[in-house]
Protein backbone atom coordinates (compact mmCIF):
# COMPACT_ATOMS: atom_id res chain seq x y z
CA UNK A 1 0.00 0.00 0.00
CA UNK A 2 1.27 3.46 -0.93
CA UNK A 3 2.23 5.66 2.01
CA UNK A 4 1.51 9.38 2.11
CA UNK A 5 3.50 11.71 4.35
CA UNK A 6 2.12 15.02 5.58
CA UNK A 7 3.92 18.30 5.98
CA UNK A 8 4.86 19.25 9.52
CA UNK A 9 1.84 20.38 11.54
CA UNK A 10 -0.71 19.31 8.91
CA UNK A 11 -1.94 16.41 11.00
CA UNK A 12 -3.83 18.66 13.44
CA UNK A 13 -7.19 18.41 11.65
CA UNK A 14 -6.81 14.62 11.52
CA UNK A 15 -6.21 14.56 15.26
CA UNK A 16 -9.66 16.21 15.48
CA UNK A 17 -10.97 13.41 13.21
CA UNK A 18 -11.80 15.63 10.25
CA UNK A 19 -12.09 13.19 7.31
CA UNK A 20 -10.46 15.26 4.54
CA UNK A 21 -6.82 15.75 3.64
CA UNK A 22 -6.15 18.60 1.23
CA UNK A 23 -3.47 18.36 -1.46
CA UNK A 24 -1.53 21.27 0.06
CA UNK A 25 -0.94 19.27 3.24
CA UNK A 26 1.00 16.52 1.46
CA UNK A 27 4.80 16.43 1.69
CA UNK A 28 5.47 13.36 -0.46
CA UNK A 29 4.42 9.79 -1.32
CA UNK A 30 6.28 6.53 -0.85
CA UNK A 31 5.16 5.12 -4.20
CA UNK A 32 2.73 6.39 -6.82
CA UNK A 33 -0.94 5.97 -5.89
CA UNK A 34 -3.57 5.45 -8.55
CA UNK A 35 -6.78 7.43 -8.50
CA UNK A 36 -9.22 5.75 -6.09
CA UNK A 37 -6.57 3.64 -4.37
CA UNK A 38 -6.47 3.29 -0.58
CA UNK A 39 -3.36 4.95 0.90
CA UNK A 40 -1.91 5.03 4.40
CA UNK A 41 -1.31 8.50 5.83
CA UNK A 42 1.63 9.31 8.11
CA UNK A 43 2.69 12.45 9.94
CA UNK A 44 6.00 14.19 9.23
CA UNK A 45 7.34 12.13 12.15
CA UNK A 46 6.35 8.94 10.30
CA UNK A 47 3.52 8.08 12.69
CA UNK A 48 0.41 6.43 11.20
CA UNK A 49 -2.65 8.64 11.52
CA UNK A 50 -5.26 7.55 8.93
CA UNK A 51 -6.05 5.67 5.74
CA UNK A 52 -8.41 6.53 2.94
CA UNK A 53 -9.18 6.90 -0.76
CA UNK A 54 -6.68 8.94 -2.76
CA UNK A 55 -7.92 11.27 -5.49
CA UNK A 56 -6.31 13.95 -7.63
CA UNK A 57 -7.76 17.33 -6.69
CA UNK A 58 -8.15 19.75 -3.81
CA UNK A 59 -9.42 17.04 -1.44
CA UNK A 60 -6.64 14.51 -1.95
CA UNK A 61 -7.71 11.88 0.60
CA UNK A 62 -11.10 11.03 2.06
CA UNK A 63 -10.45 9.19 5.29
CA UNK A 64 -12.06 5.78 5.76
CA UNK A 65 -10.42 4.88 9.06
CA UNK A 66 -8.18 6.40 11.71
CA UNK A 67 -6.94 2.89 12.52
CA UNK A 68 -4.91 0.49 10.42
CA UNK A 69 -7.53 -1.94 9.18
CA UNK A 70 -7.90 -3.75 5.86
CA UNK A 71 -10.41 -2.03 3.57
CA UNK A 72 -12.18 -5.17 2.39
CA UNK A 73 -15.62 -6.77 2.24
CA UNK A 74 -15.73 -7.14 6.02
CA UNK A 75 -14.95 -3.42 6.46
CA UNK A 76 -17.80 -2.38 4.17
CA UNK A 77 -20.22 -4.78 5.85
CA UNK A 78 -19.43 -3.40 9.31
CA UNK A 79 -19.88 0.22 8.21
CA UNK A 80 -23.14 -0.55 6.39
CA UNK A 81 -24.46 -2.54 9.34
CA UNK A 82 -23.88 0.43 11.66
CA UNK A 83 -25.66 2.71 9.15
CA UNK A 84 -28.65 0.36 8.95
CA UNK A 85 -28.85 0.04 12.72
CA UNK A 86 -29.04 3.84 13.00
CA UNK A 87 -31.92 3.99 10.50
CA UNK A 88 -33.78 1.26 12.35
CA UNK A 89 -33.30 3.04 15.68
CA UNK A 90 -34.81 6.29 14.34
CA UNK A 91 -37.76 4.44 12.82
CA UNK A 92 -37.25 5.00 9.10
CA UNK A 93 -36.05 1.49 8.18
CA UNK A 94 -38.28 -1.59 8.62
CA UNK A 95 -41.29 0.71 8.86
CA UNK A 96 -44.41 -0.49 6.95
CA UNK A 97 -45.50 3.13 6.42
CA UNK A 98 -42.09 4.24 5.13
CA UNK A 99 -39.79 2.30 2.82
CA UNK A 100 -37.86 5.38 1.67
CA UNK A 101 -34.76 6.60 3.48
CA UNK A 102 -31.08 7.43 3.15
CA UNK A 103 -28.99 4.50 4.28
CA UNK A 104 -25.56 6.11 3.78
CA UNK A 105 -24.87 9.83 3.98
CA UNK A 106 -21.18 10.16 3.12
CA UNK A 107 -19.07 11.60 5.91
CA UNK A 108 -22.08 11.45 8.24
CA UNK A 109 -21.76 7.67 8.17
CA UNK A 110 -17.95 7.59 8.04
CA UNK A 111 -18.12 6.64 4.36
CA UNK A 112 -17.03 9.85 2.61
CA UNK A 113 -17.91 9.97 -1.05
CA UNK A 114 -20.75 7.43 -0.84
CA UNK A 115 -24.53 7.99 -0.93
CA UNK A 116 -27.09 5.18 -0.75
CA UNK A 117 -30.83 5.87 -0.83
CA UNK A 118 -33.38 3.09 -0.39
CA UNK A 119 -36.67 3.13 -2.29
CA UNK A 120 -38.79 0.10 -1.40
CA UNK A 121 -36.85 -2.91 -2.77
CA UNK A 122 -34.26 -0.84 -4.66
CA UNK A 123 -31.12 0.82 -3.33
CA UNK A 124 -29.66 3.63 -5.44
CA UNK A 125 -25.92 3.96 -4.91
CA UNK A 126 -24.02 7.10 -5.87
CA UNK A 127 -20.26 7.67 -5.74
CA UNK A 128 -18.86 11.18 -5.28
CA UNK A 129 -15.23 10.05 -5.12
CA UNK A 130 -12.99 7.95 -7.33
CA UNK A 131 -12.37 5.52 -4.47
CA UNK A 132 -16.02 4.68 -3.94
CA UNK A 133 -16.34 4.12 -7.70
CA UNK A 134 -13.37 1.75 -7.73
CA UNK A 135 -14.81 -0.21 -4.78
CA UNK A 136 -18.43 -0.17 -6.00
CA UNK A 137 -18.75 -3.90 -6.70
CA UNK A 138 -17.45 -4.91 -3.26
CA UNK A 139 -19.69 -2.29 -1.61
CA UNK A 140 -22.69 -3.64 -3.55
CA UNK A 141 -21.91 -7.17 -2.39
CA UNK A 142 -21.64 -5.99 1.23
CA UNK A 143 -24.89 -4.03 0.85
CA UNK A 144 -26.78 -7.06 -0.42
CA UNK A 145 -25.58 -9.13 2.54
CA UNK A 146 -26.26 -6.48 5.20
CA UNK A 147 -29.74 -5.67 3.87
CA UNK A 148 -30.58 -9.39 4.12
CA UNK A 149 -33.54 -9.52 1.75
CA UNK A 150 -34.73 -5.92 2.27
CA UNK A 151 -33.62 -5.02 -1.26
CA UNK A 152 -33.63 -6.94 -4.54
CA UNK A 153 -32.04 -4.27 -6.74
CA UNK A 154 -28.99 -2.03 -6.55
CA UNK A 155 -28.83 0.74 -9.14
CA UNK A 156 -25.52 2.56 -9.56
CA UNK A 157 -25.93 6.20 -10.60
CA UNK A 158 -22.67 8.13 -10.68
CA UNK A 159 -22.16 9.42 -14.22
CA UNK A 160 -22.74 13.03 -13.14
CA UNK A 161 -21.28 12.94 -9.61
CA UNK A 162 -17.75 11.65 -10.13
CA UNK A 163 -14.86 14.08 -10.73
CA UNK A 164 -14.77 14.66 -14.47
CA UNK A 165 -10.97 14.89 -14.52
CA UNK A 166 -10.65 11.33 -13.30
CA UNK A 167 -10.69 9.02 -16.31
CA UNK A 168 -13.12 6.57 -14.72
CA UNK A 169 -15.69 6.11 -17.52
CA UNK A 170 -18.60 5.48 -15.14
CA UNK A 171 -21.78 3.94 -16.47
CA UNK A 172 -25.13 4.02 -14.73
CA UNK A 173 -26.83 0.67 -14.39
CA UNK A 174 -27.94 -2.15 -12.14
CA UNK A 175 -25.30 -3.91 -10.08
CA UNK A 176 -27.97 -6.26 -8.72
CA UNK A 177 -31.41 -7.12 -10.10
CA UNK A 178 -33.07 -4.90 -12.67
CA UNK A 179 -36.66 -4.31 -11.62
CA UNK A 180 -38.57 -1.45 -13.25
CA UNK A 181 -41.02 -1.20 -10.33
CA UNK A 182 -40.31 2.34 -9.14
CA UNK A 183 -43.12 3.04 -6.65
CA UNK A 184 -42.03 3.73 -3.09
CA UNK A 185 -43.78 4.90 0.07
CA UNK A 186 -43.00 7.80 2.41
CA UNK A 187 -45.09 8.30 5.55
CA UNK A 188 -47.96 6.42 3.91
CA UNK A 189 -47.88 8.38 0.61
CA UNK A 190 -46.82 6.75 -2.66
CA UNK A 191 -44.61 8.20 -5.34
CA UNK A 192 -42.72 7.24 -8.49
CA UNK A 193 -38.93 7.40 -8.29
CA UNK A 194 -37.05 8.24 -11.49
CA UNK A 195 -33.61 6.90 -10.59
CA UNK A 196 -32.80 6.46 -14.29
CA UNK A 197 -33.07 10.11 -15.39
CA UNK A 198 -34.18 12.06 -12.30
CA UNK A 199 -32.10 14.46 -10.21
CA UNK A 200 -29.90 13.12 -7.40
CA UNK A 201 -30.94 9.52 -6.75
CA UNK A 202 -34.47 10.14 -8.02
CA UNK A 203 -36.21 11.82 -5.09
CA UNK A 204 -35.29 14.37 -2.44
CA UNK A 205 -35.35 12.14 0.63
CA UNK A 206 -33.95 14.94 2.81
CA UNK A 207 -37.25 16.86 2.93
CA UNK A 208 -39.32 14.03 4.46
CA UNK A 209 -39.72 15.55 7.95
CA UNK A 210 -40.24 19.04 6.52
CA UNK A 211 -42.97 17.74 4.22
CA UNK A 212 -44.67 16.16 7.24
CA UNK A 213 -44.51 19.52 9.04
CA UNK A 214 -46.03 21.26 6.04
CA UNK A 215 -48.95 18.83 6.13
CA UNK A 216 -49.88 20.14 9.59
CA UNK A 217 -50.11 23.71 8.26
CA UNK A 218 -52.01 22.97 5.06
CA UNK A 219 -55.64 22.69 6.18
CA UNK A 220 -57.93 25.09 4.31
CA UNK A 221 -54.97 26.90 2.73
CA UNK A 222 -54.17 27.76 -0.89
CA UNK A 223 -50.74 26.25 -1.44
CA UNK A 224 -48.03 27.13 -3.98
CA UNK A 225 -45.18 24.63 -4.31
CA UNK A 226 -42.34 26.29 -6.22
CA UNK A 227 -39.51 24.17 -7.70
CA UNK A 228 -41.81 21.22 -7.04
CA UNK A 229 -39.65 18.59 -8.83
CA UNK A 230 -41.61 15.36 -8.13
CA UNK A 231 -44.33 17.09 -6.12
CA UNK A 232 -43.45 15.84 -2.64
CA UNK A 233 -44.68 18.91 -0.77
CA UNK A 234 -47.78 19.02 -2.99
CA UNK A 235 -49.28 15.67 -2.06
CA UNK A 236 -48.49 16.18 1.63
CA UNK A 237 -50.39 19.48 1.43
CA UNK A 238 -53.33 17.71 -0.19
CA UNK A 239 -53.42 15.08 2.53
CA UNK A 240 -53.31 17.91 5.05
CA UNK A 241 -56.58 19.32 3.71
CA UNK A 242 -55.44 22.17 1.45
CA UNK A 243 -58.14 23.96 -0.54
CA UNK A 244 -55.95 24.00 -3.64
CA UNK A 245 -52.36 23.12 -4.50
CA UNK A 246 -50.41 24.56 -7.43
CA UNK A 247 -47.08 22.97 -8.37
CA UNK A 248 -44.51 24.87 -10.45
CA UNK A 249 -41.25 23.70 -12.02
CA UNK A 250 -39.32 24.79 -15.09
CA UNK A 251 -38.93 21.15 -16.15
CA UNK A 252 -41.81 19.61 -18.10
CA UNK A 253 -40.55 16.17 -17.05
CA UNK A 254 -40.76 17.18 -13.39
CA UNK A 255 -44.33 18.41 -13.89
CA UNK A 256 -45.25 15.13 -15.56
CA UNK A 257 -43.84 13.19 -12.61
CA UNK A 258 -45.61 15.49 -10.13
CA UNK A 259 -48.93 14.85 -11.86
CA UNK A 260 -48.31 11.09 -11.80
CA UNK A 261 -47.49 11.21 -8.08
CA UNK A 262 -50.57 13.25 -7.23
CA UNK A 263 -52.67 10.81 -9.24
CA UNK A 264 -51.15 7.88 -7.30
CA UNK A 265 -52.41 9.33 -4.03
CA UNK A 266 -55.42 11.47 -5.03
CA UNK A 267 -56.78 10.17 -8.35
CA UNK A 268 -59.01 12.67 -10.10
CA UNK A 269 -58.67 15.27 -7.33
CA UNK A 270 -59.46 18.70 -8.85
CA UNK A 271 -57.58 20.62 -6.14
CA UNK A 272 -54.21 20.15 -7.86
CA UNK A 273 -52.83 21.91 -10.92
CA UNK A 274 -49.26 21.95 -12.22
CA UNK A 275 -47.38 24.46 -14.38
CA UNK A 276 -44.13 24.05 -16.33
CA UNK A 277 -42.78 27.58 -16.01
CA UNK A 278 -39.79 29.56 -14.78
CA UNK A 279 -40.17 30.26 -11.06
CA UNK A 280 -39.45 33.99 -11.20
CA UNK A 281 -41.80 34.50 -14.15
CA UNK A 282 -44.57 32.65 -12.33
CA UNK A 283 -44.04 34.68 -9.16
CA UNK A 284 -44.15 37.90 -11.19
CA UNK A 285 -47.46 37.11 -12.85
CA UNK A 286 -49.28 35.36 -10.00
CA UNK A 287 -51.84 37.15 -7.87
CA UNK A 288 -52.17 37.16 -4.09
CA UNK A 289 -54.29 34.00 -3.83
CA UNK A 290 -51.75 31.93 -1.89
CA UNK A 291 -51.45 31.78 1.89
CA UNK A 292 -48.91 28.93 2.05
CA UNK A 293 -45.85 29.06 -0.22
CA UNK A 294 -42.94 26.60 -0.45
CA UNK A 295 -39.63 27.82 -1.90
CA UNK A 296 -37.29 24.85 -2.31
CA UNK A 297 -34.93 25.80 -5.15
CA UNK A 298 -31.97 23.77 -6.41
CA UNK A 299 -28.56 24.73 -5.06
CA UNK A 300 -27.91 28.31 -6.13
CA UNK A 301 -24.22 27.94 -5.19
CA UNK A 302 -22.20 24.75 -5.61
CA UNK A 303 -18.87 26.43 -4.83
CA UNK A 304 -17.70 29.49 -2.91
CA UNK A 305 -17.14 31.58 -6.04
CA UNK A 306 -20.91 31.53 -6.66
CA UNK A 307 -21.88 32.56 -3.11
CA UNK A 308 -22.51 36.25 -3.78
CA UNK A 309 -24.81 35.60 -6.73
CA UNK A 310 -26.57 32.85 -4.81
CA UNK A 311 -27.41 35.15 -1.91
CA UNK A 312 -28.78 37.72 -4.36
CA UNK A 313 -30.94 34.95 -5.82
CA UNK A 314 -32.31 33.96 -2.41
CA UNK A 315 -33.08 37.62 -1.59
CA UNK A 316 -34.89 38.15 -4.87
CA UNK A 317 -36.88 34.92 -4.61
CA UNK A 318 -37.98 35.46 -1.02
CA UNK A 319 -38.75 39.15 -1.57
CA UNK A 320 -41.18 38.19 -4.31
CA UNK A 321 -42.88 35.65 -2.02
CA UNK A 322 -43.16 38.21 0.82
CA UNK A 323 -44.66 40.67 -1.64
CA UNK A 324 -47.35 38.28 -2.91
CA UNK A 325 -48.29 36.04 0.05
CA UNK A 326 -51.64 36.73 1.75
CA UNK A 327 -51.71 38.34 5.21
CA UNK A 328 -51.53 35.53 7.76
CA UNK A 329 -49.68 33.40 5.23
CA UNK A 330 -46.93 30.89 5.96
CA UNK A 331 -43.71 30.64 3.98
CA UNK A 332 -41.52 27.51 3.95
CA UNK A 333 -38.19 28.62 2.47
CA UNK A 334 -35.03 26.52 1.99
CA UNK A 335 -31.44 26.46 0.82
CA UNK A 336 -29.64 23.21 0.00
CA UNK A 337 -26.35 24.91 -0.95
CA UNK A 338 -23.57 23.60 1.27
CA UNK A 339 -21.49 26.78 0.88
CA UNK A 340 -24.42 28.92 2.05
CA UNK A 341 -24.27 28.95 5.86
CA UNK A 342 -27.27 29.25 8.16
CA UNK A 343 -26.27 32.86 8.86
CA UNK A 344 -25.86 33.60 5.12
CA UNK A 345 -29.31 32.23 4.37
CA UNK A 346 -31.01 33.87 7.31
CA UNK A 347 -29.51 37.26 6.41
CA UNK A 348 -30.71 36.90 2.80
CA UNK A 349 -34.25 36.04 3.93
CA UNK A 350 -34.26 38.79 6.59
CA UNK A 351 -33.16 41.33 3.99
CA UNK A 352 -35.99 40.20 1.73
CA UNK A 353 -38.47 40.55 4.59
CA UNK A 354 -37.25 44.05 5.40
CA UNK A 355 -37.56 45.10 1.76
CA UNK A 356 -41.17 43.91 1.76
CA UNK A 357 -42.04 45.92 4.87
CA UNK A 358 -44.09 42.99 6.18
CA UNK A 359 -44.08 41.87 9.81
CA UNK A 360 -42.51 38.40 9.79
CA UNK A 361 -42.03 35.84 12.57
CA UNK A 362 -40.01 32.62 12.68
CA UNK A 363 -42.09 29.56 13.54
CA UNK A 364 -39.50 26.86 12.86
CA UNK A 365 -35.83 26.56 11.92
CA UNK A 366 -35.39 23.45 9.79
CA UNK A 367 -32.55 21.18 8.75
CA UNK A 368 -31.97 17.75 7.25
CA UNK A 369 -33.53 14.65 8.86
CA UNK A 370 -31.79 12.13 11.09
CA UNK A 371 -31.05 9.72 8.23
CA UNK A 372 -28.81 12.48 6.85
CA UNK A 373 -26.60 12.66 9.96
CA UNK A 374 -23.83 15.21 10.39
CA UNK A 375 -20.48 13.91 11.56
CA UNK A 376 -19.66 16.11 14.56
CA UNK A 377 -16.07 16.36 13.29
CA UNK A 378 -17.27 17.40 9.81
CA UNK A 379 -19.70 20.34 10.16
CA UNK A 380 -19.61 20.84 6.38
CA UNK A 381 -22.08 17.94 6.19
CA UNK A 382 -24.90 20.18 7.43
CA UNK A 383 -26.13 21.50 4.11
CA UNK A 384 -29.94 21.83 4.29
CA UNK A 385 -31.35 24.82 6.10
CA UNK A 386 -34.87 26.18 6.16
CA UNK A 387 -37.20 28.63 7.85
CA UNK A 388 -40.95 28.51 8.41
CA UNK A 389 -42.20 32.08 8.59
CA UNK A 390 -45.52 33.67 9.52
CA UNK A 391 -46.19 36.76 7.44
CA UNK A 392 -48.71 39.31 8.73
Q: Would you spell out the secondary-structure blueprint of this structure?
A:
Blueprint: E1 3-6, H1 12-15, E2 20-22, E3 26-30, E4 38-42, E5 48-54, E6 59-65, H2 73-89, E7 100-105, E8 114-119, E9 122-127, H3 130-134, H4 136-147, E10 153-156, E11 173-176, E12 183-186, E13 189-192, H5 208-217, E14 222-226, H6 232-239, E15 244-249, H7 252-265, E16 272-276, H8 279-285, E17 292-295, H9 307-324, E18 329-335, H10 342-356, E19 360-367, E20 385-391
Parallel strand pairs: 1-4, 9-10, 14-15, 14-17, 15-16, 17-18
Antiparallel strand pairs: 1-3, 2-6, 4-5, 5-6, 7-8, 8-9, 10-11, 12-13, 18-20, 19-20
Helix pairs in contact: 2-4, 5-6, 9-10
Protein model, in words:
The chain is built from 10 helices and 20 strands. It is an alpha/beta fold. The protein has helices at residues 12-15, 73-89, 130-134, 136-147, 208-217, 232-239, 252-265, 279-285, 307-324, 342-356, and strands at residues 3-6, 20-22, 26-30, 38-42, 48-54, 59-65, 100-105, 114-119, 122-127, 153-156, 173-176, 183-186, 189-192, 222-226, 244-249, 272-276, 292-295, 329-335, 360-367, 385-391. Helix 2 (73-89) crosses helix 4 (136-147), helix 5 (208-217) packs parallel to helix 6 (232-239) and helix 9 runs parallel beside helix 10. Strands 16-15-14-17-18-20-19 form a 7-stranded mixed sheet, sandwiched between helices. Strands 2-6-5-4-1-3 form a 6-stranded mixed sheet. The protein has 3 domains: 3-65, PUA domain (Archaeosine Trna-guanine Transglycosylase, Chain: A, domain 4, Roll), CATH 2.30.130; 73-187, RNA methyltransferase domain (HRMD) like (Transcription Regulator spoIIAA); 204-391, Vaccinia Virus protein VP39 (Rossmann fold, 3-Layer(aba) Sandwich), CATH 3.40.50.150.
Amino acid sequence: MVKLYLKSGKEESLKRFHPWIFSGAIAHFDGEPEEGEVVEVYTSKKEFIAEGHFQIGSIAVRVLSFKQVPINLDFWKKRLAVALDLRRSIGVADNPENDTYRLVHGEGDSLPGLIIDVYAHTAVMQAHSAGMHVDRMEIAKALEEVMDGRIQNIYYKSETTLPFKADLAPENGFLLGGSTDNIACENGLKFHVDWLKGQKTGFFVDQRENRALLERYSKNRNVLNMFCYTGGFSFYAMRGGANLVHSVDSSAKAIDLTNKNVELNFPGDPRHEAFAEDAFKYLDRMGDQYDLIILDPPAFAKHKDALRNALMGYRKLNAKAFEKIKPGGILFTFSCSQVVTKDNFRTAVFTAAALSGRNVRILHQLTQPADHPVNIYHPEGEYLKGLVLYVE
